[in-house]
Specification:
single chain; 365 residues; alpha+beta; Gyrase A, domain 2; Elongation Factor Tu (Ef-tu), domain 3; six-stranded antiparallel barrel; 8 helices; 19% helix
Length: 365
Amino acid sequence: MKTIKLKKTAFNAIHHALGAKMVEYAGYEMPVQYKGVTHEHETVRNGVGVFDVSHMGEISVQGKGSLELIQKITSNDASKLYPGKVQYSCMPNDTGGIVDDLLVYKISKNDHLLVVNASNIQKDLDWITSHNTFGAEVTNISDSVSLLAVQGQKTVEVLQKLTDINLKEMESYTFTIGEFAHIPNVLVSATGYTGEQGFEIYVENKYAAHLWEAIFEAGKDEGIEPIGLAARDTLRLEMGYCLYGNDIDDSVSPLEAGLGWITKFTKDFVHSGFLKIQKEKGVTKKLVGFEMKDKGIPRHGYEIWNADREVIGTVTSGTMSPTLKKAIGMGYVSVENSKPGSEVFINIRNKPIKAVIVSTPFIKK
């Protein structure tokens, strides 16, 4: 049997030295936890934590046709971007589904950075290139970039020690390029995947170890800790954020996934005609949140039933919420069963376990 060699981020040796439990994720060896999921989750909600998210993909789109290409492949309106602004978007496919969800950074007039999911880097690159009839320069720079996400209420307090960039004044979904921890040309972005205040910091790989050390030294009085992928998942789920491969994929449309707010019909984009018709006619299924009323943990792929044990949907994500101390999940259900307050049942080992549809986010910030 052939052994697949896992890729390693520039922080890999640090994770091992800290005793992290390492797992395969999107072709990388990544830390899933250090001291435990609940502890790490609460560290971010109440203090400050650091995630290695260097496995994410970075694709540079430059040149005169860069904006035209991005407008063609993404559902959001990238013409609204200005240098220093970030936009959440998705790339629709030819069948009404989603190639990937992503962040679009406008560096300058003809210079954009796309940040995509780790498992989709090559797929996205092929998709983007196949639609590049605009002469844009498309370059995969993923292997040269290291990325840390620093998240939590004490983030500004910690990171401001390392830079003259006024972090407190940075609005959500904006970024600045400047000196950080004596490292030149660092991209500091007021973005994250936890619902907490935080920043994502992009550096060249050669500065990775220095960046880690500087951040942890700056945060030692605030109880800063490293956080693994497991807590990243529970944090994002409490906020109702979609995870590609679970809640969104090639088979569901952005409208079904509740991403109508990033689907702008003021322009033409890949398969926009189909999505426009879908919006006018209305979707038949919707992504919803639910809380368990009876004991049981919902898992990806579990059936969602009505009171007559008829299948009305499927669970896409589920966990025990460390904040709410109850099990929560997301899944697709038929529209008629999607109203908050509706009672549904999760098929757990062929038993109907009671749940109720709720609005997301599960925790209000």
